[in-house]
């Protein structure tokens, strides 16, 4: 008699010793009863195939609905973002959907956020802003036209706090807009958010009138976002300053900067794919350029902002 040691993970690493028998008992799977008939028996695979073939189908043809007769979901209600050029590109912001706006720093994300908040609160809607890194400026928002009486500002320190607060706001309901601002959060932290979090947020706002807005540096929601935009700032304009007819080469004021917006993906418009929409990255995406004009005025150390439109361009004066 010989023995062999076999280690298996199912036994939690404990070795088993099996004894090799000289005359092992062999039983045929075709003979379930000991001492059965010795004639040729049907194999188990053949019996299984025969049973499946002879079993009647429980799904009748009348219970199958063709794809052409399936119920078509109604298009979501679209509301303006406050920037005509951007609304012409996307058709507005969809209700009951997740909209993602991404871009590098100084790409116009705060400009777009303040414009959306001013537009929604002007219509009397209650909005909620989840500030992921406590970087929101309420004075600039009020000067931009946002009604602070209709705005709930949730100040967070970490990404986990921001996600928990957003979940509570979505479940509570009653908000026309819920904006999750992760613009100042580290890109690595936002990238580590599981995809099922965005999927759960998207399902939670479905069939509601809430606009769920996500702002980050990279596109993290991916296919969970019904509308995804990427912003990119062009070169700013710094013209020379003149005083009493004399040009001062050492003094320059920021005249403005162009912001390019591109649709990365859209479930709302046919023909818009999921490729990058910047020049040379895809032919099926659309872009638009709007201007962000800034003049800086300081009053008692506090920066104030007033917004206005001129020839379809967004202007900001501080």
Characterise this structure.
- This protein has seven helices and 18 strands.
- It has a ten-stranded mixed sheet with strand order 7-6-8-9-5-10-13-14-18-17, with helices on both faces.
- The chain is an alpha/beta fold.
- It has one domain (about 80-240, about 250-315): P-loop containing nucleotide triphosphate hydrolases (Rossmann fold), CATH 3.40.50.300.
- About 20% of the residues lie in helices and about 30% in strands.
Task: Identify the CATH class.
Answer: Alpha Beta
Number of strands: 18
- Binned, the helix content reads 10-25%
CATH architecture: 3-Layer(aba) Sandwich
The CATH topology corresponds to: Rossmann fold
Major beta sheet, strand line-up: 7-6-8-9-5-10-13-14-18-17
Q: What's the domain count?
A: 1
pLDDT < 50 runs, ≥5 residues: 1-36, 271-285, 293-318
Could you outline the blueprint of secondary structure elements for this entry?
Elements: E1 3-6, E2 16-19, H1 44-54, E3 78-79, H2 84-90, E4 93-94, E5 98-102, H3 109-122, E6 127-131, H4 138-143, E7 151-155, H5 159-172, E8 177-181, H6 187-191, H7 195-205, E9 211-216, E10 227-233, E11 240-243, E12 246-252, E13 257-266, E14 287-295, E15 298-299, E16 302-303, E17 306-310, E18 313-317
Parallel strand pairs: 5-9, 5-10, 6-7, 6-8, 8-9, 14-18
Antiparallel strand pairs: 1-2, 3-4, 10-13, 11-12, 13-14, 15-16, 17-18
Question: Which features does this protein show?
Answer:
single chain, 318 residues, alpha/beta, ten-stranded mixed β-sheet, two-stranded antiparallel ribbon, disordered N terminus, disordered C terminus
